[in-house]
Design brief:
InterPro entries: HotDog_dom_sf, PTE-AB_protein, Thioestr_dom. With 200 residues, the protein is an alpha+beta fold. The protein is built from five helices and nine strands; from the N terminus they run αααβαββββαββββ. The strands form two sheets. The protein has a seven-stranded antiparallel β-sheet, sandwiched between helices. The protein has a two-stranded antiparallel ribbon with strand order 4-5. The longest helix is centred in the middle third of the chain and has 19 residues. The radius of gyration is 17 Å and the shape is globular. The model has no long low-confidence stretch (mean pLDDT 91).
């Protein structure tokens, strides 16, 4: 209980590095879905913001202010080109709680927005875009200090080169759906955006 209610480690501290190492070890050795996805040749694994330098990552919300073992301690993406589908594996720490032990709804929305956007961006020839609409249904609480998966797809039939309709399910590691969401992403006609590249 002391651990649950105490302040999370300061990002970059020795305690934080130990916690991140523990989280990554669990990811590498103890998650069946990671083994399954790695065994499937249709999925390619990458880190979130794999195209960006460490300095650039500091200016991104989820890899900057929300970094560290207390925040989004781990974000891995498995991309399936054949199905235009992404499965992301994330670890959510104590620093993004809204209530003790319960992840803040705004943090969940941020995570969902990024994952929906990643699939939309892969669809756009411009390899960039922005959120136009986001609809979220919170089904059950999500708790800190746990791994979750986001299963994200695109509506190919209704999406175009400038609009992409995506949806996702956030699941815990019993497979239960915690949150569902749909998003509309667009490529603005008048605003010039930076290309995000193949590894978002």
């Amino acid at each position: 209980m002391d651990y649950k209610v105490s302040a999370p480690p300061v990002p970059g501290s020795e305690e934080d590095r130990r916690e991140i190492a523990r989280i990554h070890s669990f990811y590498e050795n103890a998650l069946p879905i990671v083994r399954d996805l790695r065994d499937n040749p249709d999925y390619v694994e990458s880190d979130a913001y794999g195209n960006f330098t460490e300095e650039e990552k500091k200016h991104m919300l989820t890899s900057g202010p929300l970094r560290g073992s207390g925040g989004l301690a781990l974000q891995k993406i498995f991309w399936n080109e054949k199905e235009n589908k992404a499965i992301s594996v994330v670890f959510l720490g104590r620093a993004i709680e809204g209530w003790p032990t319960v992840i803040h709804g705004g943090a969940i929305a941020t995570l969902i927005d990024e994952n929906l956007g990643r699939v939309a961006i892969r669809h756009f020839p411009e390899k960039t875009g922005v959120t136009a609409n986001l609809e979220i249904n919170y089904r059950r609480p999500m708790f800190s200090e746990q791994f979750y998966t986001l299963h994200t797809t695109i509506d190919q039939e209704n999406s175009t080169e400038r609009k992409a309709y995506t949806k996702t399910e956030v699941r815990d590691f019993t497979g239960r759906i915690c949150t569902e969401a749909m998003g509309l992403f667009v490529v603005p006609k008048t605003l010039k955006l930076q290309k995000l590249g193949d590894q978002y």
